[in-house]
Every structure is written in C-alpha cells, then in structure tokens.
Specification:
The chain is α/β, with parallel strands linked by helices. The protein has one domain: Stationary-phase Survival Protein Sure Homolog, Chain: A (3-Layer(aba) Sandwich), CATH 3.40.1210.10. It is 26% helix and 27% strand. The chain is built from 7 helices and 13 strands. The strands form 3 sheets. The protein has a 9-stranded mixed beta sheet with strand order 3-4-2-1-5-6-7-13-8, with helices on both faces. Strand 10 and strand 11 form a beta hairpin. The longest helix has 13 residues. The chain starts with a strand and ends in an 8-residue tail after the last helix. 39% of the residues are buried.
Length: 250
C-alpha cells in the first residue's frame, strides 16, 4: 500500500542527498512530498522562524522550498500546506555525520524530531563524511530500514541513522547504538572587513570523539551502520537524586 512520506533536510532543496533520498522512496512506490529550505540551514537546531514571514515556493507537484528552517519546513507541511496526513517523516540524507552532541545542533535531526513531536514515525539519515561523498550504497540500506519502521506498532519511534561512506560490500552490518561524546575545539576567529569593522567566524579543527564501546562513533569507525533511538525527554534522572536537597534552600 502506498503511504504518504514527507522528506526534508537542512542542506537545502538542491542538495544531492535529498535528491537521492527522493529517488529511493519513490522506488518503493510511496507518495513523496518534499518541503525543504531554499538554502543550507545546517546547525540551525530545532529553531522556528517567529519574527519574520516565511516564503514558500512550489517547485513542482508536491515539492516546495521555503525560506525557513528544517523545523519550519515540517511544521508548514503538516499544518496546512499539505492536506494529506503523513505516515512517516524522513530528514536527509545529510552530507556529514550527526552523532553524539552533534544532534543538539543538527537541523537534519530537528526536522525528524518535529515529526516525532506530532506522533509520526521519524527518521534522520546522515552519510558519515564531510569529504567526498558516495551515496551509491544508501538505497540498499535505507529501504529495509524504512520498511521495518513502517511495520512497527510504535508510531512514536524516532531514530537517527548514520551510514558509513564506503562501498556496500564493506559495511559490516547494523549496530543499535547510544549517542557518543564529541571532543570540540571551537575558537572565535576575529577579522576586519575593508572598512576596518570587525567580524567573527566560529572555527577550530574538526572535532574528534571519545572512544566508547557501544556508541554511534564506534559503529561508524568500524564500518557499521549506526541506528540510535532518540526521544525528547532531556531529564537527568540521576541528577534528580543529587540535587533533591535544593528544596530546602528556600
């Protein structure tokens, strides 16, 4: 049975990863709807545009670009732009990994999260490389994952998928992982424009990661597909016990 699947991303409407994802989902016989940013919106996290109007441009049937963030795109699609009810929301395929603390910044993950908040099965998909990309093995990976999630009774499922950037024959399988931990080395770079006014770049070397067993980083490093189930409850339950006595300070 053909289902309604909404695609979005944070790399922009013309990104190769989104084009590849569209072809994959169409090959499954599903109804594809696309609402994506008109330009790159990487690292916008789960932000909404509230202080200025959004522009929406219909590119072709069931395909739109917007001036908004990835979260805007999913909200727009499901709150009036598209009349059909979505059966799944997929964000990606991102050019670059989204692992560990990266997901807190990721527009890719945020778009899928917005679907999850609406009670729709949601998948964020990333190709784990910042360098030259090869999407050729993605079809054989993504189709069975989509089928598996669509057949689950749990419609609140939300997963983050990272795919090694290697030929399909070298992938060792799938690992269900925890989020790992990045080691960041951000710096603030100060420069001056031709008129002498200062401007700044957030820079630094490419982040590394802690070598911890069972994490998304370990899976990708060993040529496994990483699938991490996510949810939006950020409560630190261990710390609740630690800070319980704070009730007595007032």
């Amino acid at each position: 049975m053909a289902l309604n699947i909404l695609l979005s991303n944070d790399d922009g409407i013309n990104a190769e990863g989104l084009i590849v994802l569209e072809k994959i989902v169409r090959s499954m016989g599903h109804n594809v709807f696309i609402v994506a940013p008109d330009k790159n919106q990487s690292a916008t996290s789960h932000s909404l545009t509230l202080t200025k109007p959004l522009r929406i441009n219909e590119i072709s049937k069931n395909k739109w670009e917007t001036t908004g963030t990835p979260t805007d795109c999913v909200l727009i699609a499901t709150h009036g732009l598209i009349n059909e009810k979505m059966d799944m929301i997929i964000s990606g395929i991102n050019h670059g990994p989204n692992m560990g603390e990266d997901i807190l910044y990721s527009g890719t993950v945020a778009a899928a999260m917005e679907g999850h908040l609406m009670g729709v099965p949601a998948i964020a998909i990333s190709l784990a490389t910042y360098n030259e990309k090869d999407f050729t093995n993605c079809k054989n990976v993504i189709i069975p994952i989509i089928d598996f999630i669509l057949n689950l009774d749990n419609k609140r499922i939300f997963i983050n998928v990272n795919i090694p950037n290697i030929k399909n024959k070298k992938i060792n399988g799938i690992k269900i992982t925890e989020l790992g931990s990045r080691v960041y080395s951000d710096i603030l770079i100060e420069k001056s424009d031709p008129r002498g006014k200062k401007y700044y770049w957030i820079g630094g070397s490419e982040p590394t990661y802690e070598d911890i067993e069972g994490t998304d980083f370990e899976a990708i490093a060993n040529n496994y597909i990483s699938i991490t189930p996510l949810h939006t409850n950020l409560t630190d339950k261990d710390a609740m016990t630690t800070i319980r006595e704070i009730k007595n300070v007032l």
